[in-house]
Amino acid sequence: MPEIEGGDAPELRGALTLRWLGIDTYQEAVVYMTRDCHVCRSEGFAAQSRVQVALGGRHLIATVNVVSSSLLGHGEASLSESAWRALDAQEGARVQLSHPEPLESLSVLRAKVYGRRVELQGWREVLADVVEGHYSELHLAALVTACAGDRLDLAETIALTQAMVEGGERLQWPGSHVVDKHSVGGLPGNRTTLIVVPIVAAAGLTIPKTSSRAITSPAGTADTMEVLAPVDLNVERMRRVVEQEGGCIVWGGNVRLSPADDLLIRVERPLDFDSEGQLVASVLSKKIAAGSTHIVIDVPVGPTAKVRSAQAARVLGERLEAVAQALGVHARVHVSDGMQPVGRGIGPALEARDVMAVLRGEPGAPADLRERSLALAAQVLQFAPGAVPGATFDTARRLLESGAALRKFEAICRAQGDLREPPRAPLTRAVNAGCTGMCVAIDNRRIARVAKLSGAPRAPSAGVELHVRLGERVEKGAPLYTVHAEAPGELAYALSYAAQHVDIVLVEER
Amino acid sequence: MPEIEGGDAPELRGALTLRWLGIDTYQEAVVYMTRDCHVCRSEGFAAQSRVQVALGGRHLIATVNVVSSSLLGHGEASLSESAWRALDAQEGARVQLSHPEPLESLSVLRAKVYGRRVELQGWREVLADVVEGHYSELHLAALVTACAGDRLDLAETIALTQAMVEGGERLQWPGSHVVDKHSVGGLPGNRTTLIVVPIVAAAGLTIPKTSSRAITSPAGTADTMEVLAPVDLNVERMRRVVEQEGGCIVWGGNVRLSPADDLLIRVERPLDFDSEGQLVASVLSKKIAAGSTHIVIDVPVGPTAKVRSAQAARVLGERLEAVAQALGVHARVHVSDGMQPVGRGIGPALEARDVMAVLRGEPGAPADLRERSLALAAQVLQFAPGAVPGATFDTARRLLESGAALRKFEAICRAQGDLREPPRAPLTRAVNAGCTGMCVAIDNRRIARVAKLSGAPRAPSAGVELHVRLGERVEKGAPLYTVHAEAPGELAYALSYAAQHVDIVLVEER
User: Fold this and answer.
1) ipTM associated with this complex
2) Which of A218, A324, B324, B423 is the most exposed place for a label (fewest CB within 10 A)?
């Protein structure tokens, strides 16, 4: 042991007093410190400095931001909202700051960045650090980039999927056939889940469905379902709903299935990379962790959808089926039309209205949403023991038309806590056709942007109601779509964007 | 044109009033907004939302952080310190917020992520957006990752280097031979630049040296030079110094040579990837932009240095020389010993003392710093027209021993504005050997950490003074190194770290 002259090293004075600043950096943990605090000094105010923050028995690694104004006094620190929650912090509490231990799993990440293959154990180490919040946003971006394109082969994709499943809760259900469905996404209004789940559950199968909230879209399935029933269930309550009704539609955020996936998605979306291996691992890990054994995956194909060609859909489908098989479950890919939004509504309440119209068999219910839901339900029903191929579409239709699916849906909503009517927006304004002609294109991404500008999904009744579909004739002055909003400012913002992008719904004069 | 019922779309109300919060996020541009502002609403509080912020004629793209406390009032916004400076902001000014245009160059980035080759024009587009601040940290991390390992071939490295040079200022000097030297780094105390430049300039060659400040190390060359003379010169003043004295040692941050490189480095360091192609482009683009035609590159090799094997040094050297040749300049790689720190001091003033001791020919001057500097100067002098191979080491030694190099150094310092004596730290404490034996290892990274904890480089006199070198015999109780500090807290912090890591200077009992 070396000796330090003049006695032992003085104790660290690493504690700072918390003050709440209320800064939301989304999921990134940030610690705010003053320029004269010793941790700042020792780190040299470096870019992306990472420190360990401990409070009570909890700790996390956060990125340093330095405050030079009087927001913080001497000896004070603050945390971003997500870090504040994660540490269960209180104003005045004393946090201990220290240098984080080096992350061993970064050598695995580095190996992948350099193009080497990563085995199951390596993925386990990387994902454990991801779930613990040890990786910075930069590390997560590097991980996603290193896996992008075709950089994960089949064996690595299998290993990644398995490690993702192992990294969180894993549900189990009685019986050998637990079914599920998933849509690869990118298509506004595609809320088939709310129709498929009650049909399948009414047929007697078990379908424990977890769904996501919107991150960059105007509504996630969980947002739309929340207009009709609570979705914020924990694992125990979810289990009781499924045991009672055979199915559920809950938000996945509370049940901690494949939590690494949730964290990777937060950087995948802004980067906008289509990483096939990671998409496969993301979809399948969630389903396998939810206890599903037989899964139908809807892949909408279209120029403004996530998957843009039949060839890309085929490659993705083969990979999904092969990885599922390796992990002991069955996946079947269902390619669908992704040329235009599904149904009429875009936004939580407007989509919920479409869903209820289909379930109730109303004459004006959107036919495309009905047909897509029946086709998917039929695919799922083919997994039932003793199912007759070719007969399941009729089974699905019968369950829908007889009202059995509606009754099952209402029962699921009540089991989840409540059955509610979708709200209506107080403000609406139509965007009308500038000429007479035919609707030849609808831009999925821009119509979704209009819905987001109008307030969806935070304002549940906000969004867009489409009045035309591809190939339909439109008269000059007839409404193309109506913007719904809860606040005048948001209505103005959405309409301004609509006025700047006149070809969102393209009418060709003829 | 579609028509909106009830008249034109209302005007956007996109202006917010600035309030200064003084939050330093290093180089990332962040805009702080309240939860109820319309831009926040329209973006749905999404992770990594990016908005364009315009003020006067300037604009940039910033990441949104949402403030839910009373830090900001209704209609107010704030900016991180770097964004505040970039927009030349004032409290009370009105900023305009809008959705940024899609970045066309992201398709080039995506192509590289997917493993395709990127040509010169593609690199130009990517780097233009990097320099304009259009890329988020996530995009920069993806770019660095996509280029890591061996993912840039020779042709791409040449194109990247050229695009980096084109993206900033480019200096020109009279004469056909403008020389330079560069160290690949990772070795504490390796301040040969301050000795090589005056030797070479005293020999009559032109050597316009720009250096970096420390980001994660206890001292950059610019930090050490700043203890002795001003380094914060602009291009015009730098030019006058070089024209007058033949050489200079200034901070590169004010002269805007290869600015994309500065921005990529901010994510490369925390990611800690050794991207060979990017390292080559980084080193050569700076030198070529500075107008150099003949460059010696020092590559220290050692287990805790940046380059860890002779094989890696050879591969790197070949790539450096090939890219230099393609861009019309000459590069020569000089492999050196990277097993331990150079000289005795680690930290700006302590390193400056070593440098002055060598220049003044003091008997106790560190022999290793002297020898390394002479070897490098000899390599640079071989570029001189008519140089005799084998004779340049003697030339360098003669210029050093005669005092010509010292006089040239003092002249350069005065031309840069001032010649100063390095300060001495008020607080010092020795760490002593716990046993008698031989010094068998020195951990470059951890000894640098001790120096940083003691306050270097912000506190210029702080740092570490090493008393032993590899292979030397040490008596129990004799000092291994002394920590220098300007504040008691920092001394304590450095000593605490030293006490926790007893093998920073490893003495084997024998």
Assistant:
1) 0.83
2) B423
